[in-house]
Amino acid sequence: MNAELRALIFDVDGTLADTEEFHRRAFNATFTAAGLGWWWNRETYRQLLRVAGGRQRMRAYAEREDADMAQHEDLDELLAELHVRKTIRYDASLREQPLPLRPGIARLFAEADAAGILLAIATTTTAANVDALLYPAFGRFWRDRFAAVVSGTEIKRLKPEPDVYLEVLRQLRLDADACLAFEDSANGIRSAQAAGLAVIVTPTWYSLAESLPPALVSLPHLGDPGNPLPPGVPGAPIVDLARLREWHAHAVATEPLGRATACC
């Protein structure tokens, strides 16, 4: 098989930007305002991130630490309301203090645009959270940069299920072997691989606590001229489109995509 690389598909939280600390603070502010007595420190939240979805994380925490809340007859409604309030706080914090994109993201977007490579987003965060992150970076018409944007708002099953990637592929009208996925977490890697995609992983402090499944290549970030990858890291000093094409061709030539490979 000799499939041409035609699209790059990106996760959002942790992949486009290191957002998790902003999420943690928004959760804690919401818990305090609700009088719950919950407080997630960095290590607690690091462990909870193994559960996909904000409401699901709160449920997991309640089941572990707050038996009365876990048995509340209106738990689903309470968690849904808490998540709405948390999202409002998170979005406001990003608009007040925009987060920079991780090294190499904006550069690679520009390279893909110039080369006619499609860009897409596959995330299980909410649509509002994606807008809060990308509006400051790319302006009100940021969606125009992407051929497909699928969030947790539009799918039923979250990562590690493949639904979000399968929906992106459907909207792109592309097979998995024409694309590369970019992720930062174990659930994200499993989701992309289950959809048949080769994955480049750029973990953060939060996701490095996990045992990450093998991916096509693992990097600290994608690199920029002012913030290059360390010598000896695959792709150093920067991961450009030419290098992505090499890695993609390697993946297609050596393994059916969706299986772990050791690359370059």
Which key phrases capture this entry?
264 residues, 2 domains, DNA polymerase, domain 1, 44% helix, 6 strands, disordered C terminus, globular, Rossmann fold, 6-stranded parallel sheet, alpha/beta, 9% strand
Mean pLDDT figure: 93
In which order are the strands of the major sheet placed?
3-2-1-4-5-6
- CATH fold descriptor of the largest domain: Rossmann fold
Describe the global form.
globular
Number of strands: 6
Compute the gyration radius: what is it? 18 Å
> What CATH architecture of the largest domain would you give?
3-Layer(aba) Sandwich
Q: Which structural class fits the helix and strand makeup?
A: alpha/beta
- CATH homologous superfamily title of the largest domain: HAD superfamily/HAD-like
Number of domains: 2
In this structure, how is the largest beta sheet organized? 6 strands, parallel
Order of helices and strands: EHHHHHHEHEHEHEEH
Total count of helical runs of at least 4 residues: 10
- As a percent range, the share of helical residues equals 40-55%
Low-confidence stretches: 256-264
Strand fraction equals 5-15%
Q: Quickly name the level 1 CATH class of the largest domain.
A: Alpha Beta
Q: What is the terminal-to-terminal distance?
A: 19 Å
